[in-house]
Structures are given as C-alpha cells and as structure tokens.
C-alpha cells in the first residue's frame, strides 16, 4: 500500500476554543501553526503530495480533518460528525474530496461517525463505537464498504475518544495498542506493540509509506516502534494534544 496524497486543513485562531477533555491548557495558536507546518513537511518527506485547505475559523476543530471523511481506494464516505459543533466542517471537505473521487457517499441522520474511529487494515475497516460514532453510522459505513467489495466490523470502545486514539495499524500485520485495546480479541491475531499507560497518547502513530510518525516526547513508544523495524519520525504536536487530537487526526491520506 502506498499513499500518494493527503488533505490537511490549517488551524484557525479559533482553535483555542476546540473541544477538549485533556486538561492541558489552551493551545498556543502560533505554536500550533508551526507544528502544523512541520507536520505537512513530514508528510511531504514521506512522498505524499499535500493539499492544504485554508482554515475554517467558524469551526474550532476543523484542523482535525481526518474525522470528516473516510477515503478508501474504491470511494469516499463523508462523515456526519458526532459532535454537533463539528457537523459544518464537512461541506468544504466534500468539495475537495470530490476533486479526487467520483464515488462519494454520505453518512445520514440518525447516524453519526467520526473517521478517527475508523482504522483501515487492508480491505477491512474496524469501526469504533464511541461517544461520536453510533451504530447507525457504523452500519451505514459497513453497507457502503460492502457495496465496494470491502468489509467493516465494529469495535465497542469503553473509554477512548476515538478508536485510533488507542490503536494504530502500522501495516505488516502490526499494531501499536494502548489501554483498552491491548487485550482486545479483535486485534489478538496481529503482532502488537504495547504502549504503556504513561505514554498512551503516542498510540496514535501514523504509518506513511514505510515511515512511522510518532508524537515527540514518548521515548518508550518511539523505541518500541523503531525496534520493530520502522523508520520513526518524531513530531511535536503538543498544541493539538491539548484538544485531544493526535497525528492521524491532522490529515486524510489516500
Ligand atoms: C474533538 O474533540 O473532536 C477534537 N477536539 C479532537 C479530534 C481528534 N480527532 C481524532 O482523534 N481523530
């Protein structure tokens, strides 16, 4: 598998009003901008051509563009975000997605889904049932995937915001897993890289074309992923962490 492109959305000054449960303080907007630029450079360094959407200042969480769409090799699905304040983010994203995809479908009410809850493993998509993604949303996504010859299954979440807050697929039949996902039956047949509780945030790592982007400041996880044979790139995303956002949330890859 190889990613050719990515879509990102620059953070706007309203970022400081984003949804959060992190208790890490208010993001520094200028620092967030610098971290976002470094993130885009890292994507480019992985051989990905990046489309940067302008900031959407009406939606403080819009920079977490991953949540708004699922892009598969057979078509795109526009999400219906679980947080009402995020629903308006999808309109502009859909326009950009339509420049690249002919098959574009949508999750409809009463379904809700954030694509941070969807993890691609080859042709199969694991969908977390969370505070943001409900069964109707997941069922709609699974039907659309099946209509394209792909498959999906649900994974109920106990505590995490999103599925990918606690598990990342690093290709090669390997996953980095934290917290409630370390012992889940659904993932027991994979080679698991356990992430310690004190480094839980680093479980949201991002495989791109052979490299793995890991949040800076989590040395045990960085070492474990590196020891598993990956070329690791550490990136500081402290300002996005303050809003519960991680590395994967900041882009749509396809
Ligand atoms: C939110 O609560 O929706 C944002 N503050 C963070 C979204 C993070 N996205 C992700 O994990 N995929």
UniProtKB/TrEMBL annotation:
InterPro entries per the UniProt record, alphabetical: DDAH-like (IPR033199)
GO biological process: arginine metabolic process; citrulline metabolic process; positive regulation of nitric oxide biosynthetic process
Pfam families the record matches: DDAH_eukar
Active site: 162, 249
Superkingdom of origin organism: Bacteria
Gene Ontology MF terms in the entry: amino acid binding; dimethylargininase activity
Keyword terms, alphabetized: Hydrolase
Family: Belongs to the DDAH family.
Name of this chain's protein: N(G),N(G)-dimethylarginine dimethylaminohydrolase
